[in-house]
Amino acid sequence: MEGLQLSPQEIAERSSAAMWARDDASKWLGATLDAVGPGTATVSMTVQEHHTNGHDICHGGFIFTLADSAFAFACNSYNQIVVAQQNSITYVAPGRLGDRLTAGAREIARFGRSGIYDVSVTDQDGRLIAEFRGNSRQIAGQHFQDS
């Protein structure tokens, strides 16, 4: 592969593979990385009993973690190490036991070393569960050697 230029999609896939190999938090959550592309990612999980709170609905922290994971894969899709600078979430509806929650992240803007990403979390019926906005900051390093 030496001397060949990788496409933006190949860079996103290689970056996400390198991250997923070390992402114990997303794996512990029970999440799967379903899709990745330049500035985008889709991560999902099924709400299990250990994800529910005292109201018998999915704990908001787990929904936030799912959205944050999608955000992380989207903003790290350019073979640059990127971390969260600030994130916020608005919960719209509860996730329930057995629901398959999907977090779809999309890039809104990238400028300098910063980025803005929106993540919509929906259930298997397409019902909106939460909206998340993440601000990212690029730091030193790459996910893989590109030459």
Shape: elongated
* Annotation, overall tally of beta strands: 6
Largest sheet: 6 strands, antiparallel
> Which quaternary structure do these chains form?
single chain
The rounded Rg comes to 16 Å
Q: Could you say which structural class the secondary elements and strand pairing correspond to?
A: alpha+beta
Report how far apart the termini are.
9 Å
Architecture, CATH level 2? Roll
Percent of residues in helices = 25-40%
What is the mean pLDDT?
96
Strand order of the largest sheet: 1-2-4-5-6-3
What's the number of domains? Answer: 1
CATH hierarchy, class: Alpha Beta
- Can you write the helix and strand succession as a string? HHEEHEEEE
The number of helical segments is 3
Strand content: 35-45%
Say what the CATH topology is: Thiol Ester Dehydrase, Chain A
Tell me the name of the CATH homologous superfamily: Hotdog Thioesterase
The stretches of 5 or more residues where confidence is low (pLDDT under 50) are: none
Protein name: Acyl-coenzyme A thioesterase PaaI
InterPro entries: Acyl-CoA_thioesterase_PaaI, HotDog_dom_sf, PaaD, PAAI_dom, Thioestr_dom
GO molecular function: hydrolase activity
Organism: Nitratireductor thuwali
Architecture overview:
With 147 residues, the chain is of the alpha+beta class. The protein is 25% helix and 37% strand. It has a single domain (8-138), classed as Roll (Thiol Ester Dehydrase, Chain A), CATH 3.10.129. It has helices at 8-22, 24-29, 60-75, and strands spanning 32-37, 40-46, 82-91, 100-111, 114-122, 128-138. Strands 1-2-4-5-6-3 form a 6-stranded antiparallel beta sheet. A hairpin with a 2-residue loop joins strand 4 and strand 5. It is elongated, with a radius of gyration of 16 Å. The mean pLDDT is 96. Its EC number is 3.1.2.-. Keywords: Hydrolase. Pfam families: 4HBT.
